[in-house]
Design goal:
mainly beta; single chain; 372 residues
Amino acid sequence: MKYLSFFFLFFFSAITYGQVNDIHNTLNLIFLADGIAQKIEIIDINTEESIYVIETDKSIHEVFATPFAPVLIFSSLEDSSINFIDLRSMEVAKELILNSPPMHGVLDPSGTKIAFTNSLDGGFEYISAYSGERIFSLDDFPATGPILFDVNQVELYFSSINDNWIGFLDLNTKRYSEIDLPLSGQSAFELSSPSRSMDGRYIYISNTSSGEVYVLNAFSKIIFKAFYVGSQPVRPYSTPEGSFLYIVDEASGKFISVDQNQFNTFYEGMVPPGTNLIAVGRFDRYNLFLSTHTKNYAIFDNVRQRVTDQGMLEGTPVAVYGTVDGRSAYIAFKDHKDMVKLSFENQEIAAISTNLNSVTAMTVGMSNNVCH
């Protein structure tokens, strides 16, 4: 990583709790950000204790942790900046000002590069997560939400905000194209960001206007399957083991589990209305369904094909991440001080104390959350 001495613009105060182990190893860490208070708290996954609180002098929009390097990145809409923190020194190694506000950031599967888009004004920025250098930018890139990298990180997918096309950007040629989806008889379109299968053969996208979820062949770019789920389908979710495609209607809570081999319906039932967050346990068996609008949760068992537990949490979730081994999921709240851990092994929920009053963004060094 390149360090620029004149970029030490921020001052950090660190609160240490006991012995700090591997503070630079992001694989063992959870990062919680209170964007308004301008703080980032670091939680040790092994001890489930807070080990540092970093204070910045600007608002925090999103946070990203590189899995194989001691680098923590946060974006700020305040000055359209990307800020790179060296976790070994706890200092900002670099600040990069983008051409447009970084509304949506996505790390590539290797964790070495990060792409930023803007869903209002458009624009695309492709950044090295290690050096903080701009690889290339496209000022004429269409307005879009979070993008999706392909398996080989050669191409990325994106969708229109208010039209019926899906886009493809070649990261080598820096050229993008748009392919109209054959959605006849519709006067309005509202497409989700795309998702994909684990092997990269299929692309999934929801259309809120029609209530459908489309399955596209990633090579031919042709829709060959559609599922109707309801009036407000959320972004499709592909499970970590690659077994299932999850389709959820946020309005009603209708839930469809689809076999990703034959694309037959494996299960159809209900989860709490408002569901738009999912975490999956080992072997795709236990599944946690949450909402960023309510405190309701449900746990679904793929073996018994039923909801085995449901109830209300102490707060309204802002994000959820499953651990790499699929044994647990961590939930942060926008209106509750502590975060919680759900054990997929015994379905028990336990609180983890934090020093933040609320959380606006969350990330972990590595998760089994996939294909988003």
